[in-house]
Write a structure and sequence with these properties.
The chain is mostly helical. It is built from five helices and no strands. It is elongated and about 50 Å long. The two termini are about 20 Å apart.
């Protein structure tokens, strides 16, 4: 199995981590009872729940791209150093991004996001050209 496909499989654990962090922050903010309702008349979230929501949304914005590129790499049989590095960079940067979203260090989160995008670009170039 290629590195790209292996990381695609493990990205399910990564996605679950984002969902667990977001849902935990939400429940800590709103309470378990409110979380179990239809959430009508929801007040604005506190800082931590908002960060969990934003981190998850940001992850999902790039996750579909990673999935498409990893599958295309596998189907095309184009796995090479460039695609392998790209997949690994995206995967590990996205792990780093989650805690970085909760830490107040200027530009850390944006820097990690940029690194993850470089990974996607490498993966795209490797499979497309």
């Amino acid at each position: 199995m290629s590195i790209e496909l292996t990381l695609l499989i493990w990205s399910a654990v990564l996605a679950l981590a984002y969902v667990v962090v977001q849902s935990t922050a939400y429940r800590l903010d709103y309470g378990i009872v409110f979380a179990g309702t239809q959430r009508d008349n929801e007040r604005p979230p506190n800082k931590w729940a908002a960060r969990g929501n934003k981190a998850l949304r940001n992850f999902l914005e790039t996750y579909a791209i990673f999935i498409a590129l990893a599958v295309a790499t596998e189907i095309a049989g184009r796995s090479d150093g460039l695609t392998q590095w790209g997949a690994q960079i995206w995967f590990w940067a996205r792990w780093a991004y989650l805690p970085a979203y909760f830490i107040d260090i200027p530009f850390l989160r944006s820097g990690i996001w940029t690194v993850s995008m470089i990974g996607l670009v490498l993966l795209f170039v490797g499979v497309a050209f």
